[in-house]
Amino acid sequence: MTTRNIPAERANAMLSVIKEFQCLSHTDIEMVAAACQWHRYEAGNEIVRYHDHTNSAFFIVQGEIRVMYHGLLGQEVILCDLSTGEMFGELTAIDGYPRSATVVARTSILLASMHALDFQNLIYSNRQIAESF
């Protein structure tokens, strides 16, 4: 994983593809972008692991991820695949419980992440985003 600095205007444009952010004003998108950290993962890299105590929400701005866990007998159980424009990790960011699944990059991806407190402040202060959940 590499963390990157993204120019503000480019960050705003990339975040505007996130479904829950499409209703936001340019000023609101700028505030979201200012609170985000940027990460690149290559295909096969693990992003979060089942039962991790990390609490960031993630926004997929390029690429695809797979959400899964391993059953009691060790078999891989695929919950879903997500792609550009979607978010994941929002439940942990809201409720503070450990991660409920492992997330792996399916392709080379670029993610924005937001710490739980910033994410909570965003959804509590913006009715349009809160209603999207």
In words, what does this structure look like?
- The protein has one domain: Sandwich (Jelly Rolls).
- The protein contains 5 helices and 9 strands.
- The protein has helices at 8-15, 26-35, 90-95, 116-125, 127-131, and strands spanning 2-4, 37-41, 46-48, 57-62, 64-70, 76-83, 87-88, 102-105, 109-114.
- A hairpin with a 5-residue loop joins strand 5 (64-70) and strand 6.
- Helix 1 (8-15) crosses helix 2.
- The longest helix has 10 residues, at 26-35.
- It starts with a strand and ends with a helix.
- The model has no long low-confidence stretch (mean pLDDT 90).
What form results from the Cα inertia axes? globular
Secondary structure class reads alpha+beta
**CATH C-level name:** Mainly Beta
Tell me roughly what share of residues is in helical segments: 25-40%
Q: Main sheet, how many strands, which sense, barrel?
A: 5 strands, antiparallel
Rounded to the nearest angstrom, the distance between the terminal CA atoms is 29 Å
Number of strands: 9
The pLDDT mean sits at 90
Regions with little confidence, pLDDT below 50 for 5+ residues: none
Number of domains: 1
Give the SSE layout:
Layout lengths: L1 E3 L3 H8 L10 H10 L1 E5 L4 E3 L8 E6 L1 E7 L5 E8 L3 E2 L1 H6 L6 E4 L3 E6 L1 H10 L1 H5 L2
Antiparallel strand pairs: 1-2, 2-9, 3-8, 4-7, 4-9, 5-6, 5-8
Helix pairs in contact: 1-2
Short description:
With 133 residues, the chain is an alpha+beta fold. It has 5 helices and 9 strands.
Q: Which key phrases capture this entry?
A:
133 residues, Jelly Rolls, 5-stranded antiparallel beta sheet
